[in-house]
Amino acid sequence: SRSIRLAVIPGDGIGQEVVAQGLKVLSAALPQDVKLETRSYDLGAQRWHATGDTLPDAELESLKDHDAILLGAIGDPSVPSGVLERGLLLKLRFAFDHYVNLRPSKLFPNTPTPLAGRPDIDFVVVREGTEGPYVGNGGSMRTGTPDEVATEVSLNTAHGVERVVRDAYERADSRPRKKLTLVHKNNVLVHAGHLWKNIFDRVGQEYPEVTTDYLHVDAATIFFVTQPERFDVIVTDNLFGDILTDLAAAVTGGIGLAASGNINPSGAFPSMFEPVHGSAPDIAGTGKADPTATVLSVALLLSHLGYGDEAARIETAVASDLAERDAAAPRTTDEIGDALAARVSG
Amino acid sequence: SRSIRLAVIPGDGIGQEVVAQGLKVLSAALPQDVKLETRSYDLGAQRWHATGDTLPDAELESLKDHDAILLGAIGDPSVPSGVLERGLLLKLRFAFDHYVNLRPSKLFPNTPTPLAGRPDIDFVVVREGTEGPYVGNGGSMRTGTPDEVATEVSLNTAHGVERVVRDAYERADSRPRKKLTLVHKNNVLVHAGHLWKNIFDRVGQEYPEVTTDYLHVDAATIFFVTQPERFDVIVTDNLFGDILTDLAAAVTGGIGLAASGNINPSGAFPSMFEPVHGSAPDIAGTGKADPTATVLSVALLLSHLGYGDEAARIETAVASDLAERDAAAPRTTDEIGDALAARVSG
Ligand SMILES: CC(C)[C@H](C(=O)O)[C@@H](O)C(=O)O
Ligand SMILES: CC(C)[C@H](C(=O)O)[C@@H](O)C(=O)O
Q: Where is the Isopropylmalate dehydrogenase-like domain (chains A, B) (predicted)?
């Protein structure tokens, strides 16, 4: 009989609440014969305050011993900015070589968008997850003095760029429109930019059916609001991907719906699935958090583990739920989770 | 009698066309007793193809000897990406220490916006112009091989950050709403981010009437489309400012209206005014380019040189012209320039 060993990191703020709904829907979606074993990890702001730990080696080791990780949200205003992000969230992405940070964006019918004219949005951003300005290679000297100098180094390797670009071509090739857009800023960040562009062009020769396109990141933000329907698959650097996917979430109904997978396609380490949103401490405990982004992240998780039908059932359930949502009658986190679970099992 | 010595760099693509309209409106706006002396510099793609020069030292020297610079647009697909941007445009911004890259964003009545509900947008981005990832401090090794490593270094100094932050506080303090938002990514780019945040907080103590706010750049893009009315003055790093101001232009009627000033507040070097848009080679020569962004940049130029009334007259002319525009009856570049000049003189 089959089984899934799932590590769960609820994290901070609304993390706990949305993860509970994600697990509810996961259980509802799984076939009877699949055994789900979950182990919860107490990591995040509370743990850091209590012990000073962000992600001890023993727990990093133990996390490895799972098929996948489901993460809620990390970060709290009581913790200095960067401590948990770098010490926990990014540490996981880097340690487990999550080089494909997959972020689909789709505007569902009936879902509110700030854009006039409700454009037809359905694209996926393949954000590089292990390089670029996120490597943590920076420092400061004469810190706190009028002579301080602070640096941040973006590191980019042919190895790191090629593997994520290849993954993006594969995804584009398997979609009906077969279109891939590279986003960078190669007129200013010429060294990193040319590395990306050269590899993008070279690998493209192996995918003659994929139409390609290049945009500077600033121009890309314009098209996200004026012509988002032009995008199919986008591949981009870690920082540009961070910025673009929040904007993509905003135009497709908000951060409450945006799912993501931090994927290690080789399978050498467990992949990690999380909503794009943060810990939203302002609404933690109020029942106002929308668990849909986490539920859609569970669908990405199932799909990654080979449960494609179950993933599709969750996506259909979300689409139907969204189609019937009534902005005038908001439901609680729990109610949305229950409704989705019911649709998935029914 | 007074005079303005203006250096003009029309540049590439539509640059020539829009600059011609900018000069037309400038002449119409200036009081009779002000003598306008212009000198045009042949810089850009054509020059580079002919001579290999982007900005020779002699011309850089000669540019210094002016009260201001009006620039059209730089860049052409026939030139490798980065050559003209780094060798001409950014070289000017750096050589003339244009540390305040000023980019106002206002949604005028009747102007189309991709946002539903036509929010009330009226903010200004103070983008740092001489530091950050734009310094050109990067390189690559084993270039073109599977072992290539490419870097981009973001350099940030207390000196450079404090002066632009101070400028932004001054601007916020002089506006009715007195609100200043810092945008960075200090949960990931911790060294540069903390330098910015610390200086932002410290300088803020000198401006007790200014309300402050901090946003990560990814979150800021969300608010640009869901709640742009929340912004008054934004101060941010060179790269984040580049991205945010294109998005700001998109939501306030497009890049055809977005003006900018590359300002050296000390007056040690001439400040440079340019539309935010690029050279748009696809529409060059068709008469489709909207010169309004250049005309509004001329208003920023006049205001910088102390001609506040004349600047205001141009802004009023643009507002009236926009109010009467008919999307079904587009005018040529020249017609728009003529109409604006007529309004300004009338
Ligand atoms: C919390 C933060 C470190 C993270 C990132 O920048 O990657 C988040 O914004 C995201 O997009 O997952
Ligand atoms: C052309 C390019 C170098 C420039 C920049 O990145 O600053 C442009 O996008 C701008 O915003 O003025």
A: 5-340
pLDDT tops 90 at residue A1: no
What is B1-102+256-346's CATH topology?
Isopropylmalate Dehydrogenase (3.40.718)
Q: Is the CB of A290 under 6 A from ligand 1?
A: no
Write the pLDDT tens digit of every residue in A188-224: 999 999 999 999 999 999 999 999 999 999 999 999 9
Is the whole model's pTM more than 0.85, yes or no?
yes
Q: Measured between alpha carbons, how far is B224 from B5 in angstroms, rounded to an integer?
A: 38
User: How does A262-301 read in b/e, with b if 16+ C-beta sit within 10 Å?
Assistant: bbbbeeebbbbbbbbbbbbbeebeeebbbbbbbbbbbbbb
Contact by Cβ (8 Å): A186, A193: yes
Q: Does A159 touch chain B (CB under 8 A)?
A: yes
Mean pLDDT, rounded, for A91-112: 97
* Interface subset of A 1-20, CB within 8 angstroms of B: none
Domains in chain B: boundaries: 1-102+256-346, 113-122+131-252
Polymer length in residues for chain A: 346
pLDDT in tens, B166-199: 999 999 999 999 999 999 999 999 999 999 999 9
Dist. CA B270–CA B129, nearest whole Å: 14
Catalytic, A65? Answer no
Cα of A74 to ligand 1 centre, how many Å? Answer: 9
Residue B283 bridge partners (DSSP): none
**Is there a contact between B194 and A82 if contact means CB atoms under 8 Å apart?**
yes
pLDDT at B1 over 80: no
Helix axes B238-251, A217-226, angle to 10 degrees: 20
Residue B274 CB less than 6 A away from ligand 2: no
Question: Does any CB of chain A come closer than 8 Å to the CB of residue B103?
Answer: no
- Tell me the best of B90, B100, B102, B236 to mutate to test the pocket of ligand 2, counting ligand atoms within 8 Å of each CB and taking the most: B90
Contacts of B133 in chain A (CB under 8 A): 133, 152, 154, 188-189
Residue with tokens 């199919």: A232
Specify the CATH superfamily of domain A113-252: Isopropylmalate Dehydrogenase (3.40.718.10)
pLDDT, one tens digit per residue, over A145-159 is 999 999 999 999 999
Active-site residue list of B: 134, 185, 218, 242, 246
Q: Is B101 on the interface with A (CB under 8 A)?
A: no
Tell me whether B198 touches chain A (CB under 8 Å): yes
Query: Please, which residues bridge with residue A235 across strands?
Result: A126, A182
3-state secondary structure (DSSP) of residue B337:
helix
Q: Which CATH architecture has domain B113-122+131-252?
A: 3-Layer(aba) Sandwich (3.40)
What's the CATH code, domain A1-101+258-346? 3.40.718.10
- Cβ contact A63:A270 at 8 Å: yes
Sign of CA dihedral A143, A149, A150, A156: negative
